[in-house]
C-alpha cells in the first residue's frame, strides 16, 4: 500500500520536525521517514472528515505521538469519548475500546483500523456466561472490567477499569461482588478491599506471560531498578513490583517518584510512549507485545478514514443497557473527583 504523497520528503521532515523530537529516542530517522507520508495524509484526512483519533497507551509511537488527538488508558479514552464534538471517532486500541466509544456516542461514527484487534480477556466470557453467574449468585452485584464485549457490559451492574476497580467495587455497598473476567485484576482488587470477590477465570495473554523469576532476574541483573507492573499480571509478579497500577497510574507514579531506571511490566509501547515525557529516566526491558494492539497501523488508519470503513455497529437495545453500566462507572469517578 502506497501513501498519497503531497510533499517532498525534506518538506515533510521540516513540517513534522516537532513531532519527531517526541519519538526520536525510540525510533530511528529512517523509520520515521517511512511514516511521514502516512502521517501527513492522515492529518489532512482527519480535518476533512471532522474526525478525532483516540489512541491507547499501547499504540505504537508513530500513532500515539504523531496522529492521535487524545491518548490515555482505558478510563481516559472512555471519558474522552463522551466529550468530543467530532463527527467521527477513530479508536486506535482494541475492539472493546471502540465499542465503548460507540456505546457512549451512539450518534457518532466510530471506526477501528483493524476489526481483528481483539483481546484475550474480552474473549474469555460471553453474555450467556454472565447470565449463568447471576443465576448461581442471585442478588450479588456484577462488576465487569471494560475489557469485555458490549453484550457482556449489557448484562452487568457496572463497569470498571484497572484505574478505578477498587472504588467501583466499594461503591456498590455490598459485602460480596461478582468480578469479571480478569482473575488477576480481581485478586489484586481483593487485596485492596474488604469486599469478597467472586472471580471469573479470564487472563490477559500478554501480562500472564511475565513470571516472578523474571522479576528477580531483572533485579539481579539491573541492580537499582524501579519495577512498575500492571494489575493484569499474576499475584506472584505483583508481589515483586515496587508499584502496581493502570497504565495511567504508572505515568502519575513516575511523575512523583522520578526514579532513575525503570522497567514497566506491561506492553512494550508503554515505556516507548512515556519516554518522551521523562528524558532523565532510563527505561529497560523486558516487556511483552500485545498482538491485538499492534494490528493498528498508519496505513490502516488512513484506509478507514478514506473509506469510512470498519464501522462499529451495536444493536440499540445492547447500547442502551451497556451504556447504563459504563455511565454508572463514570459517575463513580465523578463522585471520587468531587
Ligand atoms: P489500562 O486501562 O491500564 O490502560 O489497561 C488496558 C489494557 O488492556 C491493559 O492490558
Ligand atoms: Fe487485552 Fe491483554 Fe492486549 Fe490489554 S494487553 S488488550 S488485556 S490482550
Brief characterization of the structure:
With 338 residues, this protein is of the alpha/beta class.
Give an overview of the whole structure.
The chain is of the alpha/beta class and 338 residues long. It folds into 3 domains: 9-118 and 293-307, Rossmann fold (3-Layer(aba) Sandwich), CATH 3.40.50; 122-202 and 314-337, NadA-like (Rossmann fold, 3-Layer(aba) Sandwich); 207-284, NadA-like (Rossmann fold). It contains 16 helices and 12 strands. It has helices spanning 9-15, 17-23, 29-49, 61-64, 74-81, 95-104, 127-136, 150-155, 165-171, 183-190, 212-222, 235-240, 247-257, 268-274, 298-307, 316-337, and strands spanning 51-56, 70-72, 88-92, 109-111, 142-145, 158-160, 176-180, 196-199, 226-229, 243-244, 261-265, 282-284. The strands form 3 sheets. Strands 2-1-3-4 form a 4-stranded parallel β-sheet, with helices on both faces. A 4-stranded parallel β-sheet has the order 6-5-7-8. The chain has a 4-stranded parallel β-sheet with strand order 10-9-11-12. Strand 9 (226-229), helix 12 and strand 10 form a beta-alpha-beta unit. Helix 5 (74-81) runs parallel beside helix 6 (95-104) and helix 6 (95-104) packs across helix 16. The termini are far apart. The structure holds 1,3-dihydroxyacetonephosphate (13P) and iron/sulfur cluster (SF4). Iron/sulfur cluster (SF4) binds at residues 94, 119-121, 147, 204-206, 232, 267, 290, 292-293. 1,3-dihydroxyacetonephosphate (13P) is lined by residues 57, 73-74, 147, 161-162, 204, 230, 232, 246-247.
